[in-house]
Queue: 3 jobs
Job 1
Amino acid sequence: MALDSRSLTPAQRYALVLVDLTVGFTDPQRSPLASACDAVVAANAQLLEAFRRRGWPVFFTTVAYDDPAQARVFREKLPVLDVLQAGSPLVEIDPRLEPGPDEPVIVKFWASAFFGTNLAELIRQAGADGVMVTGLTTSGCVRATAVDALQHDFRVLIPEQATGDRDAQAHAANLRDLNIKYADVRSVEECLALLG
């Protein structure tokens, strides 16, 4: 039996959360975690420009470890995460999406951008009641961040082309599931239209 899933009322003000659009996830020549995602980066650049033009808040995330005790069980499960060492070029935001001076880069250790960080507080301080979640990867950190955003009572919107995954089937399945239960998945064009 299908769930009675409804579209969310649009937020009054969105914050853009760009999840892990770092060299470690965008440059397959340099990182085992990365995938070919030029189209995802380009879609994020479009959204970034629109948010900046409107003056709405923007937050980036990166995963960067400087202590073996950080997220130790997560790293035991996925040892490849150890390449994301603080100070490494792999944890820097992709230069095509250079953060502005008033756009914080939230350092996280786990999948969700909210877990163990002050992101929810910063979003509320910025006067946002909704979050557009973009980035990499759909089945991992994007999903975890979107679910946690809902659990913080934010209206969650996911611009479809601004997310990506190493696994196309996982990408599609997770977007479908997120759209049913936790967020509204819309095209980048529909999301841009909300920004005016």
Note: The chain is about 35% helix and 15% strand.
Job 2
Amino acid sequence: MDEPAIEVRGLRKSFEKKEAVAGIDLDIAAGSLAGLVGPNGAGKTTTLSMMTGLLRPDAGRIVIKGLDVWADPVAAKAVIGVVPAEARLFERLSGEEVLEYAGRLRGLPAAEARSRAAQLLEMLDLAADAKRLVADYSTGMRKKAALGCALIHNPSVLFLDEPLEGVDPISADVIRRLLTRLVGSGATVLFSSHVMELVEQVCDHVSVIDKGRILATG
């Protein structure tokens, strides 16, 4: 068998006396569209934050595409894209400027960042609003712009925390289609959600989490 795109072993995190993540083991196969499902407060965001190098675990190991996230963070973060639940975008930039800036931060040459931004804005149904300030974007448009920023460097693994939270149905459909298309091109996607309907519609692999433990996976 091929080695998993995402491999998690013994992941733990406590905040004072509360154990938020209680020893998670998880494998996500390359090319999967995987969902991490559970009620609010189950430990989804804490788990994703540790997996993407945003929150240091108390114990455990995370390997993405053969790279240890905490032993070699720069190399690991180069192959991943992340859309956090509360995506903070630069309000006084336009949609296209935000994506271009994200591309430049990822080390893309200016011309490549510009062409890649235009391509993603088209795919995300934001081309008509590319010149508008992000401050004037709706929740759905912001979520799509954040997704564009996460995809600008063409990552092989994408993490999303509650990607359709507060998103209108049309934007949600655009995001769903894009995730399916990404996986079809060979990328791996892992997203957290408490919406079972979304997971049933798009996922080929599901892990159920509650009280910081994986209850079922497959």
Note: The CA atoms of residues 63 and 72 lie 10 Å apart.
Job 3
Amino acid sequence: MPTPLPHGIHKRSLLRNDVYESIRDAIIDGTFAAGERLRDPELEAWLGVSRTPIREALLRLERAGLIVSQPGRATMVASLDPAATKDARQVVAAMHELATRLAVPVLTEEHLANMVTANAKFSAALETDDVDAALAADDQFHAEMVAACANAMIPLVLDQSMPVLRRMEYQRFSSDQARHSVTAHAQIIKLASLGDTEAASLATRDNWLSLDTQIQN
């Protein structure tokens, strides 16, 4: 579809990461469709920034598997690749399982309360078919474990692996399949509050691996 309006939605002082996130999110939610060509001048007009941060963002998106570049020819949105998505799902599941193993012994009441709040927001967003809000609440839920685990490498790996998986998450959260995650989140909270590190870690892993159903479909 055409580049979104309004143009110039970002100021010149926009951080490079914000440019990356804007283009990434437009790919994830389907604003930029698979196979669509991304043109620098149109992206500049849309984002209101110069070509340099856009080119840097496109390089990151290529490494993340969301775009493909043909030197001297075109930059296009990558097609959904089931194999790449499955690989990303396995890595993300492993990272969140590790984060939970490290986090559960040091979780505070505040962490648990934040997870309960995030899951309530997640459930409410699904009820109103607000996919963006559901994704944000899901991120908030899992971010508590990642923050508590205090392993600086985990968010770096997740940042690299999540974009390609997020396209599939967007589809899942648009369907009834996502309701399963509300129950899964509640179970993770319960196990974590009991201090059951092993069970909470496996429940977290299974929550992410359950995305495999959507990939197969």
Note: The first helix runs from residue 16 to 28.
